[in-house]
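Morning!

This is the sequence you dropped in the shared folder:
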Amino acid sequence: MTSDYQMVWDNCLRTIKKNVNPQSFKTWFEPIKPVLLDREVLTIQVPNKFFFEWLEEHYVQLLKKSIRQELGERGRLVYHIPENGNGHDALKSALPKVSGKPSSEKDSEPVPGAFDAEMIKNPFVIPGIKRIKVEPQLNPNYVFDNFIEGDCNRLARNAGLAIAKKPGGTAFNPLVIFGEVGLGKTHLAQAIGNEVVSRFDNKAVLYVSAEKFTNQIIQAIKNNSVNDFVNFYQMIDVLIIDDIQFLSGKQKTQEIFFHIFNQLHQNGKQIVLTSDRAPKDLEGIEDRLISRFKWGLSADLQAPDLETRMAILEAKMEDEGVDIPTDVLEFICYNIKNNIRELEGVMISLLAQATLIRRDIDIELAKEVIRNFVTTINKEITVEFIQQLVAEHFNVPVEKLHHETRKRNIVIARQLSMYLAKKLTNKSLKSIGEQFGGRDHSTVIYSCKAVQDMMDTDMIFKDTVEEVEKKLKMSLNT
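The structure's back. Tokens below.
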């Protein structure tokens, strides 16, 4: 049978629910438990003093309205902050008797509401914080399953998975994920959060951008509620802050974040940060914060190689149930090199053209779409472009092609670059040699002969040359 106090509180919640957004209701009212009704006085249990202060500061009028609707104009609310959290029965025995005589257990004394005649006078022992439900603010589409792994992101992805399995329990705390725009930092950071949420029912996870975090602090300062703000963030088990570089120059925000960071780290909570650069390169961030960012792991996301780009695009098209011809896939990935976000944009445009206008996905359509993302699609193959593509294929720095070295992979890359430059450009032998560190025409001739000889005797090398040449031709806007 439902108790009187439960019935009164349930009716109050119906009124409250109509006047607050769903997340606020879940965060600040669902954890409350009614424990005693003494005539016009309803006693409710709240997790801690911070929780009580937040309700009184932000929802006092709403609480007053709801309780008086149920108990009349003399209705009032009393809060109880348990000392040890030993359960409902222990709590009820610690409350004042119906006669109004106070309990002998001083630390379990109930706390009157702000619209009660009494004020808080005694310090209260705050128990271990009871977990409250926090909306994590995560995009459910950002998960590990659709974060394609490649050499460009393997370290960061594996570290993220390790954290998700044991948040706060690895050496990767904090985890700083850094890299240029469009490489998947937000996706990976939120994938960690989503994985934690799926694995642990009792973990409070929160994703917030640095900009939003700063705005929240500004509001907290204006409302004189900085302590409440800090206390709330200290209850989070996995805190994910995106684009931490935007804290640059914001001294007050950095000061408050410094204290939140310290408390979370000391309590074994997990911190995940993203940035557009490595911690050592962050400007306008206090040294004490930079040093803490370096406590865990800093993992960079690099531009994906061709194979990873193709895997990403193919996987996304498969998710949409669309087949993409291999030549179109290759053409797109040859031209979109440094930004996964642009790759996704091309995919969305292709899907729109194919579904709304019912066009076939072919090279011509791909060219039209790519023009919206790439300023110039190479109309003429240049020596520089050949060097860049060959260096990428052999995974060597392009500048190494200009230097003297006996390392076989660099020598082969240089010779192949000269061979392709002679075959695919109208440059003279002398001009080609000059673009390889000032070499003369005889070196170019020798390199071309060496490549041809290897092609004649090594079928694997011949396939490599043909593959690189195909890449170059696919990059032409023909």
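Headline: The radius of gyration is 32 Å.

More detail when I'm at my desk.
O.
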